[in-house]
Amino acid sequence: MHRRTLEGELFANKRLLWLFTLRELRARYAGSFLGIFWSVIHPLIMLALYIIVFSTLVPRTGRLPFRSTTAEYTVFLCPALIAWNWFQESLLGATNSITANAAVIRKTVFPISILPAIPLTASFVAFSVSLMAFLLFLSFLGHFAWIVLVWLILLALIQAALCIGPAYFLATINVFVRDTGQLIFAVFQILFWSTPVVYPPEAITKSFPAAEWWFRLNPMARLIDAYREVILLHRSPSLETLLYLMIWIIISYHAGRSAFMHGRKHFADEV
């Protein structure tokens, strides 16, 4: 008997994945005048609020040191927040992706494997548009270089790969432990403030030197640093960072894949 693989199912149903992604985006804003454009407007509003709060109300953060240069706080914040929003929305959406689709789970012909990937691809749309808007802003400031696009595409692929394993792992665990979604939401609140998204790592490590270890171990801290390095310095991320993220991708993907493939036979009974 032919054994199904996660990779094979995703590839075979790539068109269905795209169609369900579009359905997901439309469903979020059904009946609204702007429809799917709200998926872009919401993160841009959040971005603007953070910029106003940290740049205007806290003037001392107006310009921050980064490596051998300094950056306007807006330019420092935007790539980190855009990347974080994609990361958070992907995993929060994936956590409930199976339990929220109980009706289709019970249809044996439906490829269940695409469900955790739908929030990842749906939130990628908002990420892409927000990032393009930010790059246009950089061009206006005269800080844009075309080589940046090459490295941003690579980092986006790395981030997608970094999210896919946890997405399948959390989606599976939530089927059997329904508090997972609430727990993950709380964890993300802690992770956001313990990851250098709205502040430079030095702001914490000066008072708490041990935090440097956390920032080095935290894959999102590494990824955000890579985004900033590409955008602010116009150079490739360090090889050490890329290798570290690849190790995380391999470990997390196999953990998520294994959990999903072992748990899927019980999904219909549990949902």
Walk me through this protein's architecture.
This protein has 271 residues and is mainly α. It has one domain (6-270). 71% of the residues lie in helices and 3% in strands. It has 13 helices and 2 strands; from the N terminus they run H-H-H-E-E-H-H-H-H-H-H-H-H-H-H. The protein has a two-stranded antiparallel sheet with strand order 1-2. Helix 11 packs across helix 12. The radius of gyration is 20 Å and the shape is globular. The model has no long low-confidence stretch (mean pLDDT 86).
Strand line-up of the largest beta sheet? 1-2
Please bin the fraction of helical residues: over 70%
Q: Largest sheet at a glance?
A: 2 strands, antiparallel
Distance between the termini: 27 Å
Number of strands: 2
Specify the overall morphology.
globular
Question: What oligomeric state do the depicted chains represent?
Answer: single chain
User: How many structural units, i.e. domains?
Assistant: 1
Q: What value does the average pLDDT take?
A: 86
Beta-strand percentage?
A: under 5%
Number of helices: 13
